[in-house]
Amino acid sequence: MSIVKKKGCKSAVKQKGLFIFSLLAVLVIGIGGFLYQENYLFFADSATGAKNTEVEAVVSDSGTGQTVQQAAIQIESEVIEISAIDSSYVGKTVTVQGLVASRQIHSKGHVFLTVKDETGELSVPLFADKEIDSEPYQEGKTVNVTGKVQEYQGKYEVVPALPEDIHLETALKEPITEADLGKTVVLKGEVVSRYEHPDGHLFLTLRLTDGQELEMPIFNSLKPDINAFQANAVIEVEGEISEYKGNLQVIPSNLQAIKEITAGELNEAAFKEIDAISAEDRGQKLLTEGNISDVSESKDGHLFFTLEKDGKKIETTLFKADTNELEGRKERILQAESAKFPVRIVGVVEVYEDQLTLIVDKVLID
To answer: What residue ranges define each of the domains in the chain, with the CATH number in brackets?
Structure first.
């Protein structure tokens, strides 16, 4: 009789244990879902800000090298249709493209986009800690998004980890004509010349893929990195077409509208004799030397003069800027012309109306 009671007691304890375990499991799942929704839970790689590539390195016993194996997470580099995303894509990084159908702003600073293409739609959460500027991604804009596929409440979402993982996608427009004035377009081109204005502006000349050249001013109000977008860099820019003194130009509204596809090379102003400077040096910063003559000043305050050495000449321009530093350069130029002593000029080579021109950056006197 005592044996039967012990068995019954064990059964009751077992059932109570299963009940407690089930209750704990439900609580864990519920709390986890809430924390995820409030963006308190993140994948381990999100905390590092690293790209979604995971590899495992194994050193062989022979010491001859490493065997690198791709982990389960896979990167999809091509744009895929939204409808193609299913449970097999969860944990993988993909790229999708579509129209922003709606956007919702969370009280904690997150922004949730609904992006749709011709095949379906999904959510693109821009979490506040990723520091992604969501302002450009308004309803009706076409975006390109790269991120990890996750499933939340039965729906798929693509989560970008870095600001560069999402950008506007607009058809490239070439050639540019006066009919495009006032329009916002996306252009791709090579930086063939650049000028660093003393007031902090950056003036670029882009050669588009069809050979057309267009001016691209980046004004100091955007706070550009003065060392960015060096000569030969390939960039993509979204901006408004305008006209200045008969020349068409594209004006970006912010730095996020400029994407550097291929970086240029930072020029350290190598020395070149005047007779060695050619059109192939366009956009390059050079150091050269000579005597100054024929100084003239325009109504706009720009200074034009000729730099000459051993019978070789190059036309040179000092653009006006309201800074004391420019006044110092102007005084040195006028002094060198009057006293007829040589100077060294650091400047950027430009071609204007088929004539080589040196745009002054620094005037050096030994």
So the answer is: 75-167 (2.40.50.140), 178-262 (2.40.50.140), 270-364 (2.40.50.140)
